[in-house]
Amino acid sequence: MPTRRILLAATAAATALAALPALAQAPARANPMPEELRRALERDPTAPVLGNPDGDITLTEFFDYNCPHCRTMLPLVQQLVSSDPNLRVVYREWPVFGAGSDFAARASLATLPMGRYWQMHAGLLTMRGRAEEATVMRVARDIGLDEAALRQGMLAEPIERHINTSDMLADHMGLAGTPSFICGDEAVFGAMTLDELRELVARGRRTMGVAS
């Protein structure tokens, strides 16, 4: 596997993060990810979850709607979820490509309590052109959302908290950019094939002692 792989335990051990205090390392693995960090990555109530919510392994993706490689990964992640009934996928909106990305992330997260996140998420990742205010609202109208209600929802505190947490986690782990996929104690940066995604999940299961 290329050098884009990052072993997160080493990063976590070398960095202090006030909101995620490190725990003593568990004896089952030589250098595990701290449990507070894993909970923040995998169990944040502000983060959308795809697949089996009670799955035996979690794959976390950091992404941006203006990241071309994130767009190419959408159908592969969907195929992965369809082929693995015990997989849980957590999405972390991490808008790193400017104001348009930030607007898109906030609009998308605002659809989560409306029950329309997946339509908005797919619409933003498959639309033509760059995600910015006008194009984001066009996607929202296309899927039948009320623009005024969406704009009001974008002001909700959990949205600000989600994006701030994404920034904090990415900085803490030294993520290089989007897309970044995390499973077990490992992160991989950049576009991947479906087979590479499956191998990452399989390694995560081995790391966590979960039977495939």
From TrEMBL:
Gene3D superfamilies: Glutaredoxin (3.40.30.10). Residues 1-24 form the signal peptide. GO terms for molecular function: disulfide oxidoreductase activity. CDD domains: DsbA_Com1_like. Residues 14-206 form the Thioredoxin domain. This is DsbA family protein. It comes from Paracoccus liaowanqingii. It comes from the Bacteria. InterPro entries: DSBA-like_thioredoxin_dom, TAT_signal, Thioredoxin-like_sf, Thioredoxin_CS, Thioredoxin_domain. SUPFAM superfamilies: Thioredoxin-like (SSF52833). Keywords: Redox-active center, Signal. The lineage of its organism: Bacteria, Pseudomonadati, Pseudomonadota, Alphaproteobacteria, Rhodobacterales.
